[in-house]
Amino acid sequence: MEDIYADFVRRLLVAVRLERLTLGGICSYRNASHLMERKWGKANDVSDLTRSQSTSPDGRLRYEHGIRARMYSHVIRIAREIRPDLELALCLEEYHLWQTVGLTDCMGRCTLCSVTLHAA
User: Are 76 and 97 in contact (CB under 8 A)?
Assistant: First the structure.
């Protein structure tokens, strides 16, 4: 999976001159998850990875912290290799994760104008 993200980020940053790259992971509320499972069944990738997780303080179900931190860190490392000047931010993430990936300086910069890449 990491190779797929690395290849995508490299191609994106070479082809498109971005000012900011905002990273976000799949997150859902329990009610939305129930609707998804009604359509696709309980055996789907999102439900499988979030079912055992506890609800975040903001009420969202997310992939486990370690998975998100690893994928965000990987994408950040690739982006910095290609574009050290690129502004990076996270979208709909918990403060602790911003700390883990070293982006607390960029908090509050998730805007509708940014390109969003959804991590695993």
Answer: no
78: part of which helix (H) or strand (E)? helix 65-82
Residue 44 is assigned to a structural domain of this protein: no
| List of E strands, the chain | 20-25, 27-29, 60-62, 87-90, 115-119
Token pair in block for residue 104: 């607390």
Provide the domain count of the chain.
1
**What domain range includes position 72?**
2-26+63-119
For residue 67, being part of any structural domain is answered with: yes
Q: What are phi and psi of 51, to 5 degrees?
A: -60, -40
Tens of pLDDT along the chain (120 residues) come to 788 989 999 999 999 999 999 998 777 777 777 787 888 888 877 776 666 666 777 777 777 888 889 999 999 999 999 999 999 999 888 888 889 999 888 777 664 333 344 444
Q: Name the pTM for this structure.
A: 0.74
